[in-house]
Write a structure and sequence with these properties.
Layout lengths: L4 E7 L4 E8 L1 H7 L6 H18 L6 E9 L3 E9 L3 E8 L9 H5 L2 E9 L5 E6 L5 H12 L4 E7 L4 E8 L10 H8 L4 H6 L2 H9 L4 E3 L3 E2 L1 E2 L5 H9 L3 H11 L2 E4 L6 E4 L1 H7 L11
Parallel strand pairs: 5-12
Antiparallel strand pairs: 1-2, 1-10, 1-11, 2-9, 3-4, 3-6, 4-5, 6-7, 8-9, 13-14
Subcellular location: Cytoplasm
Protein name: 33 kDa chaperonin
Function: Redox regulated molecular chaperone. Protects both thermally unfolding and oxidatively damaged proteins from irreversible aggregation. Plays an important role in the bacterial defense system toward oxidative stress.
C-alpha cells in the first residue's frame, strides 16, 4: 500500500462525509528529531493523524496548529500543518514515561489548543480540556463545541505507522443525515491493523460494502520544516548586540538548533558582524 496519503469520501445516500489518513514516512521524520519515549511516539502519531484530518476540513489557504499543553511529564506536544498537508511536529518531556502511559498520565491537567491561521482573514483559536480518555474523544468534543456537527474520530499509532478516520455530518436539513448513526457504528469497527495494512479503497469496502461511497483522489501528506539559516539569523538579531558579542567571546560561536528537525545553525564572528551590519571588531583601525 502507499503511505502518507489522505483520502476524502462521501456517501451518495447520506449527508455524511469521511476522511482516512495513513502515515509512515512523514511520521518517522517527525520522530527522528528526538529520542522520544514510546508513549510520546504514539501520542505524536495520533496528533499528526488528527492534524491531517482537521486540515482537510478547513476551507482556506493557511496554517493549522494542534497543540497539547499540560503540567505532567509531557509539557508540550504540537503538530503544525497547512492546507497542502505539509506537517512538522515536536514534543517536550521530562523524566521517565511508561510505554503504556495514558493521555492524562503524560499531560496531567492540560488542554488542547487548535489554531487556524488563514493567509487572509482572522485567526481562530479553539481550546478544549484534556479530560477525556483519549485524544480522539477530545477532538470530538472540539467539533461538538465549535462546529456543532456530529463527528466521530478514530486515531491509531504504533511508533512506525499512524492512521486515522473522521466521519462527520454535513450541514443539511435533509433527513439523509439520519444515517449518520448507522455509518458511525460501522466506522467504529475499524481496527488499527486494517488501517496500517490495507489501501483506503479496501478499508472503505470492508466498512461500507453495502453503501454507495464516492472516494476522491488522495492528497499526499509530507514533512517539511520551515527553519532556515535566515530565520535563525533574524532571531539572533532580536537579541542585544552586546549580549551576543559576550556569548561569542565566551563560546567562540553562536549555535541555534531547530526543535522540530534538530538541524544546528552555527554563526561565527564574521557571521554575527554581518547580521548586525557592522565590521568585525578587529577591523576598526583605518
Amino acid at each position: 500500500m502507499t503511505h502518507d496519503m489522505l483520502h476524502r469520501y462521501l456517501f451518495d445516500d447520506a449527508d455524511v462525509r469521511g476522511e482516512v489518513v495513513q502515515l509512515q514516512d512523514c511520521y518517522q521524520q517527525v520522530l527522528s528529531a528526538h529520542d522520544y519515549p514510546l508513549a510520546v511516539q504514539h501520542l505524536l502519531g495520533e496528533l499528526m493523524a488528527a492534524t491531517s484530518l482537521l486540515t482537510a476540513t478547513i476551507k482556506f489557504t493557511g496554517d493549522i496548529s494542534v497543540q497539547l499543553q499540560g503540567d505532567g511529564p509531557v509539557s508540550l506536544a504540537v503538530i503544525n500543518g497547512n492546507n497542502k498537508q505539509v506537517m512538522r511536529g515536536v514534543s517536550r518531556w521530562d523524566g521517565a514515561i511508561a510505554d503504556d502511559a495514558s493521555l492524562q498520565q503524560m499531560l496531567g491537567k492540560g488542554y488542547m489548543v487548535i489554531t487556524l491561521t488563514p493567509d487572509e482573514g482572522e485567526r481562530y483559536q479553539g481550546i478544549v480540556s484534556l479530560d477525556h480518555p483519549n485524544l480522539a474523544a477530545c477532538l470530538e468534543e472540539y467539533f461538538n463545541q465549535s462546529e456543532q456537527l456530529p463527528t466521530q474520530i478514530q486515531l491509531f499509532a504504533n511508533g512506525k505507522q499512524a492512521a486515522g478516520m473522521l466521519l462527520q455530518v454535513l450541514p443539511s436539513k435533509s433527513a439523509k443525515n439520519e444515517d449518520y448513526e448507522h455509518l458511525s457504528t460501522l466506522t467504529a469497527t475499524i481496527k488499527a491493523e486494517e488501517l496500517y495494512t490495507l489501501d483506503a479503497e479496501q478499508v472503505l469496502h470492508r466498512l461500507y460494502h453495502q453503501e454507495q461511497v464516492r472516494l476522491f483522489d488522495p492528497v499526499d501528506v509530507t514533512f517539511k520544516c520551515s527553519c532556515s539559516r535566515e530565520r535563525s539569523a533574524a532571531a539572533i538579531r532580536t537579541i542585544s548586540q552586546a549580549e551576543v558579542e559576550q556569548i561569542l567571546a565566551e563560546e567562540g560561536k553562536i549555535e541555534m538548533g531547530c526543535e522540530y528537525c534538530s538541524v544546528m545553525y552555527t554563526f561565527d564572528g564574521i557571521d554575527i558582524a554581518s547580521i548586525y551590519a557592522i565590521s568585525p571588531s578587529n577591523d576598526t583601525a583605518q
